[in-house]
Amino acid sequence: MTIYQRMAEYARQHRVTPVEDLPAGELGKSLALFHQSLIETGLDADGTEENPRLTAVPEDISPLHLSYFVVAFLPFNAITEKSETNSTLFDVYSFCQWLRKTGAATGLEDRPVDGLIRELAAQQDRCLKLSHLLDAESERVLEFPPEIVSTRADLFRVTEIARGRVLLQSPRQEDTLTLRLSGATLEKMRPNDHLELVIGDTSERWVLLEASKVFPGISQNDLRN
């Protein structure tokens, strides 16, 4: 069964209240948001652009998808209070536990989901501040824009932070890129953070042109304040 089909089954069994203002609103607000977030990460889906349906299976859900949902998606999508965030996270945790109890394999088997969600929630403030700092860096570049030879828009992974620079790796490129950033920005950054950026090549160096989503990677020692 697909993730959407499993979510729909869970919603029926638990008599979840549907919502009208979200795609897949029949899943209830929490699962509809999680469903939307998983689509944004690139998991397979079909249906219309206004109302897509995941065709990926639960085994395709990885800890990194959960990181994107908790840290990069929820704070900016229809969640206005801490209590509402906590309620949504509990609903998603309950769904993941239900999947496990029904014997559905997921990509979340290696770590307890409740502990992982708590660790990720603790990263929200840091990643939000990092996102703001990256925005400020790009604004400084664009105030006196250099001549740009080419640009790259991608989701980069931080591989190393050292001596005023961050080394970035794209999943679609073998080369590692170097970006010079302020000390305040680098202080908030962690290895394996994922940064959605647009960067420009001046032929002499890479510069930051635009920053969007920021969320932590998932491996040992990744999640620390």
Question: What would you say this structure looks like, in words?
Answer:
The chain has a five-stranded antiparallel beta sheet. Strands 1-2 form a two-stranded antiparallel ribbon. It folds into two domains: 3-121, no CATH class; 125-215, Beta Barrel (OB fold (Dihydrolipoamide Acetyltransferase, E2P)). 31% of the residues are buried. The protein has seven helices and seven strands, in the order ααββααααβββαββ. The protein is an alpha+beta fold and 225 residues long. It has helices spanning 3-13, 29-40, 63-73, 82-101, 113-121, 124-143, 183-188, and strands at 45-47, 52-54, 150-162, 165-169, 176-180, 194-201, 206-215. It is elongated, with a radius of gyration of 19 Å.
Q: Give the proportion of residues in helices.
A: 25-40%
Distance between the termini: 38 Å
Give the number of DSSP strands: 7
Order of helices and strands: HHEEHHHHEEEHEE
Helix/strand/pairing class, anyone?
alpha+beta
Structural domain count: 2
Mean pLDDT value? 92
Radius of gyration: 19 Å
Explain briefly what this protein structure is:
This protein is α+β, with helices and mostly antiparallel strands and 225 residues long. 40% of the residues lie in helices and 21% in strands. Helix 2 (29-40) packs across helix 4 (82-101) and helix 3 packs parallel to helix 5 (113-121).
